[in-house]
Amino acid sequence: MALVAFTLIQLLNTPAELAIGVMLIAAVPSGVTSNVLTKFTNGDVALSISLTVIVSLVSIISIYIAPTAAYALTMMISSIFFIFIIKKNT
Description:
The chain is an all-alpha fold. Helix content is 86%, strand content 0%.
């Protein structure tokens, strides 16, 4: 899969940012693929399936929490930075 992604990146002459994202997605197995690869390598399939289920359930919640948390964190950091600048200039 990574070889196909690399070939497409080279043929389509994609920007570096997009190329990195495509290579990451192509190189990291997810969902059912990770469970199959775990079985092929004689790994702990029960653990792999459990982690897949947990991550899938957490993603349902985190997809709504992440933007709110990012906004709150950005506002907090900018407020601290703004206060620091005001105190430094006075």
